[in-house]
Every structure is written in structure tokens, then in C-alpha cells.
Amino acid sequence: MPTDVPAIAAQLDDETLHVWQLAYDPGRGRAPLIALLAGYLGVSAGAVQLTEGPHGRPQLGPAHGDILDLNWSHSGGCALVAIGHGVAPGIDVERRRPRPRALELAQRYFHPAETAWLAAQPIDRREEAFLALWTAKEAVLKALGRGLAFGLHRLEIGLETAVPQLRQLAGDDAATWQLHALDAGPAHVAALAWRGPPRNIRYRILADAG
Prior knowledge:
CATH architecture: Alpha-Beta Complex
Structural class: alpha+beta
């Protein structure tokens, strides 16, 4: 674990969310995530207890109390981790690659207003727009602690402005949510969501979380 992680962890307060970008290697699995969390908890990696919620959302075990909440996502060689106090963040990252069936998938699974907006996009921008919708929707669902089974059509994202907007969320007040696009580099698209007031987002790249 890089020595600067504990110092940065000490800067985490109730008005801030930390987002880390890590290199992802399937052979190492969650080891970089656990090493990062160890820096925040002030324990060895072997002492970090990581469990899963009912829908597979990773969470710290009871031994750590409710000091931190977290979420992580990985695609290709990139992983993103969101960490906060008193908030359940949701984060999603997807690798840019050709998705020729983007509109077809949206018509099948997305909210009708999103599908109409996507269909109106120039063909050369449609796959990028689809990824922006997908990552935003996934980030919200992860913050909810729910998976895709919740139904992608049960929430509506607006992307007409630079900041994505959560317009509808079944069974919840969309106005209480925060949603942000993240710059994860030229090869990936990413988004971060949480329920609650705005917070400062501190984004860092961790070269070695081992």
C-alpha cells in the first residue's frame, strides 16, 4: 500500500467523497481494494473484513462498525473505488468498445424517454451516449444496494446538460440524489451517485495498491 493513503484517508470528512482509480487485474481480484481499505481503517490488509449485501453490494464487515461505506466497479484494466462517511455511494465504470446493439438494448430495457433521446443522437455518438446512460443508471442502482433485477426502466436519467440528472426513481425521491459523470480516462466511461446533499469529490489515481 502506498504510504500516502493513510494521510489522504485522514482528509475524508462528511462533506467529501473519495474516488480512487486503480489498475485492475482479474488474477488479483479484490486484493487492491482491500489494501486500499486497510489504509483507511488503519489496519493490515489481513484484518479487513469485506462482506456482501443481499444483492451483492460489497460492504465492510460488522467488526469495522459503520465508519465507512464504499462501492467499487471494474471494467477492462480499470477499477474505481468510492469511499465516504455516512453515505452509500454507487459507482460504475465501463470500457469503451463497439456496441452496435446499443439502441436495441435501450429499447428493450431503458426508460422510454431515455430510448427516445438515444435514438435522436447522431449515429457516431450513440454508443458513447448509451454508455453514459448505462453507467449513470448502474451507479444509482449500486447506491441503492440493488442490482439490474430492480429494472433499468424504473429510473430515468437526463443527459441534455453536462451534469447528468436523475429525473425519476421508482419508490424514491429523485430530487434527493446526486449524480456525476467521472473522467476515468480515454478508454472508459464512469459515473458516481449517492442519496443526500452535494459533496466534494476528490479523485485520485493509485498506481500501486498492492
